[in-house]
Specification:
This protein is of the alpha/beta class. The chain has an 8-stranded mixed beta sheet, with helices on both faces. Strands 2-1-3-4-5 form a 5-stranded parallel beta sheet, with helices on both faces. Helix 1 crosses helix 5 and helix 10 packs parallel to helix 11. It is elongated and about 70 Å long.
Length: about 425
């Protein structure tokens, strides 16, 4: 595995916790959860690979924790810990979902068992990155950004191209297939149903392929099967895709429900998308607070300002001051180009290859890929958290940019929120 696996220790008192930690200090990171009733939410929040459940303190609660972990159908492999090898207890533990049973006074055996599980988890674990777009509120242009970002992440052509897949987790009203003018025979529910027997070849035959080379996995029009998609399985699905793709781009996240949290926890990078308005900025503050409370690593979240207009009263500096962090990327405001691409079901690279919005999305893709073009400024609050402030780029989906000396965009007569360009606008 590319990083040390996360192991949760459930229901273990302090006097035995030190013994377990000492046995596993060279194997994996250990995270204690003293309350057996919190086993499932803790495992999901931390993305635990292995759960060690102490049966020595309270057999009934320990067995219940194992059953809950098994019923949740999460990723964690369960190991039972006890003071002695009691045949009846071993049978109960296995029936409750344990894959291994270890006596606590044998630290060498514990290290061997957990080490074997870690090695079993390691094969096929590649460097694929999971990138989730998280709009601060509805109408941020997240789907337009996700589809075009995915295409930009493809990189070169032929053997030089990366493998990229978009996963649309808006199971009811997802728009990724519509934005790309595509249809799909297979759904997220189908792939989850066959997860245990999916190999690389079967996976690639189960996703829809766009002409650009981007693959798409969505629920499509099979809304009646959406309830078959269990949030507990989303993390496993995304990590499975990351073993077969260079980038997994996740769209359709709305709020902090169980499915969104599973996707966010599994992600290597979260793009928090906002626009230049008070409700969006306020929600972005709330989102950043939640991410901090979830203990996300400093470089996991990047703030992306969409539909950027330099002439807006709420400027880039004011947004950064209110959020307390730097805006990593801005995407230009170019409603005509974006809506043209959406209505034709094509990418911005084809509809408007020289537009500022298209260039900004290329820069966003470079940021996601870890490429840092241009000079970075120094200093600033939480500079290491979300990266430094960069030259202003502009938007992804909506509005227009007013050129120097031009006239501001005007609101359309149909009452919609999307302004129409004036003759002077670019």
């Amino acid at each position: 595995m590319n990083e040390r696996p996360t192991i949760i220790l459930i229901g273990c008192p302090a006097q035995r916790e030190g013994v377990v930690k000492a046995a596993l200090r060279d194997v994996a990171e250990l995270r204690p959860e003293p309350n057996p009733l919190a086993a499932v939410p803790t495992a999901r929040r931390l993305g635990a690979h292995i759960a060690l459940v102490d049966l020595a303190s309270d057999v009934e609660q320990g067995l219940r924790a194992m059953q809950d972990l098994r019923s949740a159908d999460g990723e964690a492999q369960v190991v039972a810990l006890a003071l002695e090898k009691d045949p009846d207890l071993i049978l109960q533990a296995m029936r409750s979902g344990a894959c291994e049973f270890v006596v606590l006074d044998r630290p060498g055996e514990l290290a061997r068992v957990v080490g074997d599980l870690v090695r079993r988890l390691a094969p096929d674990e590649p460097a694929g990155q999971i990138v989730s777009l998280f709009p601060a509120k509805g109408g941020m242009g997240g789907t337009a950004m996700a589809t075009n970002l995915a295409a930009m992440l493809l990189g070169g052509e032929g053997e030089g191209a990366r493998r990229v897949v978009i996963v649309d987790l808006d199971l009811q009203l997802g728009d990724v297939l519509v934005f790309l003018d595509m249809q799909s025979r297979y759904t997220i529910a189908d792939v989850l149903h066959h997860m245990k027997r999916l190999d690389r070849e079967l996976l690639f035959s189960s996703v829809a392929r766009h002409g650009s080379g981007v693959d798409v996995l969505a629920q499509s029009d099979h809304l009646e099967e959406a309830d078959k998609v269990q949030p507990a399985k989303i993390g496993a699905l995304l990590k499975f895709l990351a073993r077969n793709y260079d980038y997994v781009v996740v769209d359709g996240l709305r709020g902090f429900d169980e499915m969104a949290l599973a996707a966010l926890d599994a992600s290597n990078k979260v793009l928090l998308v906002l626009t230049q308005d008070v409700p969006s900025i306020k929600n972005a503050q709330r989102c950043l607070d939640v991410f901090r409370r979830l203990s996300y690593e400093p470089d996991k979240v990047s703030v992306v300002l969409n539909r950027y207009q330099k002439s807006e009263k709420i400027d880039l500096g004011a947004i950064e001051d209110n959020l307390g962090v730097a805006v990593s990327c801005v995407v230009a405001n170019d409603y005509p180009s974006v809506i043209k691409a959406i209505n034709r079901g094509i990418l911005l690279a084809d509809a408007a290859p020289r537009a500022k919005v298209t260039e900004d999305l290329r820069k966003l893709a470079a940021h996601v890929a870890g490429e840092r073009p241009g000079r970075r400024d120094g200093g600033g609050f939480l500079a290491g958290l979300f990266g430094r402030k960069r030259p202003a780029t502009k938007e992804v989906r909506a509005l227009t940019v007013t050129p120097p000396g031009g006239t501001a965009a005007v609101k359309p007569e149909d009452g919609s929120d999307e302004p129409e360009p004036t003759p002077e606008a670019v």
